[in-house]
Amino acid sequence: MIVMIAAVAENNALGKNNELVWHLPNDFKRFKTLTSGHHIIMGRKTFESFPKPLPNRIHIVISRQEGYQPEGCIVVHSMQKALEICPINETSYIIGGGEIYNLGLTFTDKIEITRVHHNFEADAFFPEINLDEWEIIASEFNQKDEKHLYDYTYQTFSRK
User: Fold this and answer.
1) Which top CATH class is 2-159?
2) Stretch 94-122: mean pLDDT, rounded?
């Protein structure tokens, strides 16, 4: 199963200058819980936004750069190659960024969104979710608090 996972603002913003524009500690914990022990597919810029590779995950980085080979990662040049590496009988995650989400949407079986209830200025955006093709199968609202500046909702979409 291929699952796309992202934190997305109301205006589909993902981030700006290769960084998130919000800080939601509970979302980081959820991301870690869901993706640990799995293959994660990402673009080069997303990988380079991490201080180091994420523990307990197999990193597949899609890059057009010849000779790009960060330590501990599998580098491929297409979404198709990335998906071929993922075990068929296991869950693998597409974790971004914007271009990678666009490339991966047609291959995705499920989408895990943390919907941040605010609009942000951004330079990377999540693709529009067509509700003729997807349905929300789970939703959990979370109110802002001292550690979370914005209300947010965990949403799980399944392909119809």
Assistant:
1) alpha beta
2) 97
